[in-house]
Design a protein that fits this description.
Layout lengths: L5 E7 L3 H12 L4 E5 L22 H14 L3 E4 L2 E8 L2 E6 L4 E9 L3 E4 L6 H4 L4 E2 L2 H4 L8 E4 L3 H10 L6 E4 L7 H9 L3 E3 L3 E7 L2 E7 L4 E3 L2 E4 L2 E4 L2 H6 L22 E3 L10 H35 L1
Parallel strand pairs: 1-2, 1-6, 2-3, 6-17, 8-15, 9-10, 9-15, 10-11
Antiparallel strand pairs: 4-5, 5-6, 7-16, 12-13, 13-14
Helix pairs in contact: 1-2, 1-8
Protein name: NAD(P)/FAD-dependent oxidoreductase
Keywords: Flavoprotein, Oxidoreductase
Catalytic activity: [thioredoxin]-dithiol + NADP(+) = [thioredoxin]-disulfide + NADPH + H(+)
Length: 313
């Protein structure tokens, strides 16, 4: 492997899942490149919580530390956007960058994450990751006992409100005009969660701080933070173009190590698991890396046997 653009493994995506995989593979003495566009999903978040030994660390600091560790073991970091992944032959892939550069690898790991489709309410996008939140296990403790809101229609939002009630006794569910069943209303009432059916007009922000939720009838309900259940959309364009099988929701069909239906292609983190927190994504990256290295070892052994038989003739 003398070409500097040839690798054992190319990891697409350089956040927790991708860097964790690259670290394991680099330590396994594989030639690894991580291609990253520098636009992580959790960029708006000031801190990440629930990561053992790293609780409260800014996500950018985790990424910086991970990049340093990968480089320490000889991993290569490539800044850029991948425009295409295609198969070169039975054992290699070509990874085309938007810059025009082409890399090749024996195996590819997609750690491309997902994107969040948020409610179309003024203020929501601007406050995302600050005081407009999604995961109570990531941010609930930081807003415990404050007046909280949950915004959105549907049974998933009802369940979200019931969970968030664990962190505060003052929770209001804004159904945004959605309908609730009688059992849902009974559950919410039993837990002391108020329900507001009037559609929401906007989030009220003053001095760069969320102050409340304004309704379309002009009323404002004071809230310190609001939770939503965004629609998760996998960043799967590269996967599907390569031919990886996906389910009805667009999520890649994978085995228990992240292996896809395309031989030699793996997925880790939010690209396949929308509920994976940072620590979960890192673990999935590690598991995929071990499976990839084992697969490469099997291939190396087969090639060594073939070479040995040729030499013996």
């Amino acid at each position: 492997m003398n070409d500097p653009n040839e690798y054992d493994v190319i990891v697409i995506g350089g956040s927790a899942a991708g860097l964790s995989a690259a670290l394991v593979l680099s330590r396994a003495r594989r030639r690894v490149a991580v291609v990253d566009s520098g636009e992580p999903r959790n960029a708006p978040a000031a801190h990440m919580q629930g990561f053992l030994s790293r609780d409260g660390m800014p996500p950018r600091d985790l990424v910086a530390a991970g990049r340093g560790e990968v480089e320490q073991y000889g991993g290569h970091l490539v800044g850029g956007l991948v425009s295409e992944v295609r198969r070169l032959d039975a054992s290699r892939f070509a990874v085309q960058l938007a810059s025009g550069e082409t890399l090749s690898a024996r195996r590819v790991l997609f750690a491309t994450g997902l994107r969040d489709e948020l409610p179309d309410v003024p203020g929501v996008r601007d406050r995302w990751g600050r005081d407009l939140l999604h995961c109570p296990y990531c941010h609930g403790y930081e807003v415990h006992d404050l007046p909280l809101g949950v915004l959105g229609p549907g049974p998933e939002t009802v369940q979200h409100a019931l969970i968030i009630r664990q962190w505060s006794p003052d929770v209001v569910l804004f159904t945004h005009g959605g309908d609730l069943t009688a059992p849902e209303r009974e559950q919410l009432e039993a837990r002391g969660i108020d329900v507001v059916d009037t559609p929401v007009a906007r989030l009220v922000v003053e001095d760069d701080t969320l102050r409340g939720v304004e309704l379309q009838d002009g009323r404002t309900i004071a809230r310190s933070a609001v939770f939503v259940r965004p629609r998760f959309i996998p960043n799967n364009d590269l996967l599907t173009a390569l031919g990886c099988e996906t389910d009805d929701g667009g999520w890649p069909v994978i085995d228990n190590t992240g292996g896809t239906s395309v031989r030699g292609a793996w997925v880790a983190g939010n690209a396949a698991n929308p509920r994976a927190q940072v620590i979960t994504a890192a673990g999935e990256g590690s598991a995929a890396a071990i499976a990839i290295n084992n697969d490469l070892v099997d291939e190396d052994v087969r090639q060594a046997v073939r070479n040995s038989r040729t030499t013996d003739r």
